[in-house]
Amino acid sequence: MKLESLNAKAETPTPAGHRGRARRRRLARSIAPSESTPFTGRRIPAYNLLSETVLARIEDQADWILRNIGVEFRGDRTALDHFAQTGARIDGERVRFEPGHVRALCATAPSEFQLHGRDPVRTVTLGGDNVVLMPGYGSPFVSDLVKGRRYSTLKDFRNFVKLAYSAAALHHSGGTVVEPTDVSVNKRHLDMMLAHLTLSTKPFMGSVTAPERVRDSIEMARLVFGRDFMEHHAVMQANINVNSPLIYDDTMSTALRIYAEAGQCVCVSPAIFAGAMGPLSPAAVAAQTLAEAMVGIALAQLVRPGCPVVFGSFHSTMNLRTGALTFGSPEANMTTMALTQLGRRLGVPVRSGGGQITASNAPDGQAMQDSTGAMWSTLLSGAHQVWHAAGWLEGGLVMSYEKFIMDLDHCGAMLKLLQGFETNEEAFGRDAYFETGPGENFLSTKHTLRHYAAANYEPQISDAGPFETWSENGALTSDQRATARWHQMLNDYQRPEIKPGIQAALEDFVSERKARMPDEWY
Amino acid sequence: MKLESLNAKAETPTPAGHRGRARRRRLARSIAPSESTPFTGRRIPAYNLLSETVLARIEDQADWILRNIGVEFRGDRTALDHFAQTGARIDGERVRFEPGHVRALCATAPSEFQLHGRDPVRTVTLGGDNVVLMPGYGSPFVSDLVKGRRYSTLKDFRNFVKLAYSAAALHHSGGTVVEPTDVSVNKRHLDMMLAHLTLSTKPFMGSVTAPERVRDSIEMARLVFGRDFMEHHAVMQANINVNSPLIYDDTMSTALRIYAEAGQCVCVSPAIFAGAMGPLSPAAVAAQTLAEAMVGIALAQLVRPGCPVVFGSFHSTMNLRTGALTFGSPEANMTTMALTQLGRRLGVPVRSGGGQITASNAPDGQAMQDSTGAMWSTLLSGAHQVWHAAGWLEGGLVMSYEKFIMDLDHCGAMLKLLQGFETNEEAFGRDAYFETGPGENFLSTKHTLRHYAAANYEPQISDAGPFETWSENGALTSDQRATARWHQMLNDYQRPEIKPGIQAALEDFVSERKARMPDEWY
Q1: A171 shares its domain with A218
Q2: What percent of chain B has pLDDT over 70?
Q3: Tens-digit pLDDT profile for residues A459-497
Q4: For residue A9, is pLDDT > 60?
Q5: Is the Cβ pair A320, B368 closer than 8 Å?
Q6: Bridge partners (DSSP) listed for residue A178
Q7: Are A305 and A299 in contact (CB under 8 A)?
Q8: Is there a contact between A70 and B458 if contact means CB atoms under 8 Å apart?
Q9: Where in this protein does the record put region Disordered (chains A, B) (predicted)?
């Protein structure tokens, strides 16, 4: 029921401007971190779906895969040589490991490390009680309710870097937020890096699609952060996708090795749809993901012991009657929760498959049902980094401007939830009971007045107003309300400062590289 | 990314009709309970948001409230006398308790009991590892995408009883699923009971709005179940709302006493919006809910020791600037999780506030974002019974036909998730690795063929197909697709059998009662 009778009372101005504002604010903060309070890390326990026994069984299956089937490094002799030197069995391009061997190789990976932002206040920590949310990744299309669905361009890329920079609930600028399809394939990385490095100050991802693009990405980062600093500090992240099942192609393993040599963060993400790139069960997908990811993490450690890594995963389910990929399914959500536990046991930061993902073709009820459930499984199970936390639609084919905004509201809500709530004396509000009594309301108690401004998370586009007002205002659904919000965010966007010399150096680098190469579109 | 390349393969007919079907089905069941498999209870652990220390602090605050403020029973001397006899302090209509006193009075309440369906296969167990999902409750309006928003009628009431009966994911017929506003207020309960008892065989709720309506409800149930059976078996449930803060009005406490005397299930649900009917914090709302609910549960035990009870709650947050009630907020979800833990510690089945609730005015993205998050908090924290699991819109003012269908999909998904997944040998699918190898796909492995039909939960209206097909089919959003589904469910509905004598007795009872009373509309 709407509590209509309360409206009048709550709408009368509250005496927030009077004496005691600072104290009220202090108290408010002490019982409920508001959205404007920076997220300071998870303060609620992670949910453990699986028992230790069951986790050990999945780890044993990962060992079984690595011993009996193995992993292939196609076209990367250097990677195979690294493993050969540790005593692994090499057979052509296939490498097999005795149980426990790969896990032991992962032991030098740090459990927690910083990913530095160009502005130090944007530096994030991966691991521990920290949670880092990122926008979607890799969509060749964008859509919005004004212009519809279309190939994404560099302008869209820059827009999403700006939106992610402006979003309080995102801590990371992402990587290929959308594919800038109007730029030739061999030059995209230059424009993408330029955008991340100049339009945002949040951490970002570099290119992985060819060795020279990896090197360009690192070179551009060095122009901003300095070669010396980057020798011992991670400022960028690389997404190394395993070509599941059980294949590292040389593009990926080479990119992994170059980033690891440079001491930059390597996130190893197997990509498994249950029944297609692995057997059809959450247990099997979790075990195979663990096996595949550990091998990549081990390679990073062999290249450079102590290299910061993230245990990644990308997995989901399919409708096995139609072949359509499905997201946010209960089986996928359980796999996500299992993988987070497995990654935490491995002792490295976890990017758990999940995020706010959906196969829906519109930012509708299904989209948010899928996305919200996937996000709960991701965050409650204790993932440290969440990719695809905003914008993802149509199984990742589309980055939706409106869904981006809708997802941000839920990101903020989940960050609030991860901080738990206080049970101190002020939280219980005993004084309010003496002001009121049975049957009387608490709206005008001093306790409510002390806290009303900061107690509750305030989403941007949710509408809880009466039906009549909503109808008079055009009966806009949440996706329709989101249109105004992303326009406003882009209008309000303020470009962060950058030293003119650095800006010029970056632009010169891009121009020079572009001039040297003819456009290539594959 | 959609895995387009897999479509062709997956669309070719699979040999499900061939030999080994029974064995495949058996194996499939052994690794993944499918939607058609009846839900057999939670097999994953409950999430504990709060530590024992924090829970004890909230329990202490509940004790503080009961000792220092107390609860009023307005106009119900009998209730006060019950408490007086236990040594509680009575002051006018106020009763106060020493710490621990009320909790001790609750000790005779069973931790687990059955609520019998007219068809024994529909009998549910409340408590333990069981989860009972129910439709929404109490809406004066209904809406659908064809006819729009309107006052609900008896026809709508009957429709929702039929839909809940047909829904595999709902275990209970609910109570006042919608208000049949075309029937006079003093006769509604007769038509509602008749619908629950004849159109469904699932457990249901009786009227609480006046003592004679309570007695009519019990009498009608006795016509079906028999007086003797009901003396020792619960077949119906009563929703006793506390008039929070800290008030039981005599309508509610009298209804509670009559149901308890009859040995029927009493669910005691305080109703607290943080900052209005209690102090503004999750901790305070949880403590006050516990205090208020324990008093009602204690009264039921004093009336009839061993009376089956449910620890209920209804709570949420408000936008304190506008007075609008908000649902699915992080603060409300945390309160839900806290209350489930507190109820489990009290040792009685828990109906935790939550369910699939929203303040949204349309079955849009916001509606499903709110609802999905609230449902995760409810079910993951271990609630035994979930009210408002389907249909709720506009803060409960509206029961939406389309949202009912959308919610059902998520109910089914969550029931699948609550059953966890297997990690036995078959689940790991080792044989499939020997059939394939690195880089090869698993779609046509024997393991996938054994499991593809039953491995994954299949929602009814989710669409994971390509954008092009979806567009050609009219670009229907999930709410629009739901319209066809509820029409189909009503068309396919088959009325359960009932002995003609019982049907006639019920109808005679209703006619006779109606004939004795003039219509009253208040």
Answers
A1: yes
A2: 93
A3: 999 999 999 999 999 999 999 999 999 999 999 999 999
A4: no
A5: no
A6: A139
A7: no
A8: no
A9: 1-36
Query: Which residue from B323, B349, B321, B353 is spatially nearest to B337, judged by alpha carbons?
Result: B353
SS (H, E, C) A201-244: CCCEECCCCCHHHHHHHHHHHHHHHCHHHHHHCECEEEEEECCC
Looking only at the bridges linking them, the beta strands covering B265-269 and B309-311 are parallel
The CA–CA distances, whole Å, from B191 to B170, B306, B390 equal: 22, 31, 22
- Residue A432 in contact with residue B279, Cβ under 8 Å? yes
Contact A125, A349 (CB under 8 A): no
Contacts of B2 in chain A (CB under 8 A): 324-325, 359, 394-395, 397
CA distances from A343 to A289, A337, B14 (A): 10, 10, 36
Q: Quickly list H helices, A262-399.
A: 282-303, 330-346, 365-380
A214 and A337 part of one domain: yes
Greatest distance between any 2 Cα atoms in chain B:
80
**Counts for chain B of helices (H) and strands (E), in that order:** 20, 19
Whether the CB-CB separation of A477 and B365 falls below 8 Å is answered with: yes
pLDDT confidence of residue B522: 81
What's the number of CA atoms in the CB half-sphere (13 Å) around residue A202? Answer: 20
DSSP state of A378: H
Question: Is residue A6 classed as helix, strand or coil in its secondary structure?
Answer: helix
Residue A516 predicted with pLDDT over 90: yes
| pLDDT for the residue A352 | 83
Domain that holds residue A358: 111-418
Residues in chain A: 522
| Residue B406 and residue B363 in contact, taking contact as beta carbons nearer than 8 Å | yes
Name the CA dihedral angle for A473, A478, A483, A489, rounded to a multiple of 10 degrees: 110
Residue B177 and residue B216: Cα distance in Å, rounded?
A: 18
Percent pLDDT > 70 in chain A is: 93
Q: State the ipTM, two decimals.
A: 0.93
Distance CA A423, CA B58 (A): 7
Picking from A418, A448, A482, the residue at the C-terminal end of a domain is: A418
Could you give the CA distance from residue B269 to residue B289 in angstroms, rounded to a whole number?
8
Chain B residues touching residue A71 (CB < 8 angstroms): 438
All residues of chain B having their beta carbon less than 8 Å from the beta carbon of residue A422 are 281, 283
- Total structural domains within chain A: 2
- The Cα A126–Cα A437 span in angstroms is 48
User: Which residues in B lie closer than 8 A to residue A409 (C-beta atoms)?
Assistant: 369
In the structure encoding, which two tokens stand for residue A133, read together? 């949310």
Q: How many CB atoms lie within 10 A of CB B71?
A: 28
Structural domain includes residue B231: yes
Q: From CA B187, how far away is CA B210, in angstroms rounded?
A: 11
- Region B497-504 average pLDDT: 97
B389 and B349 in a common domain: yes
One-letter amino acid of A87: G
Do residue B358 and residue B272 come from a single domain?
yes
- Residue B40 CA: distances (Å) to CA of A15, A222, B105: 54, 58, 32
Neighbours of A37 (CB within 10 A): 15
The residue among A376, A382, A299 whose CA lies nearest residue A126 is A382
Which of A58, A325, A436 faces B2 most closely, judged by CB atoms?
A325
Q: Pull the structure tokens for residue B375.
A: 């449902």
Mean pLDDT of the B106-114 span: 98
Are A109 and A297 in contact by the 8 Å Cβ rule? The answer is: yes
Dist CA B373 CA B155 (whole Å): 31
pLDDT score at B19: 36
Alpha-carbon B467 to chain mean position: 35
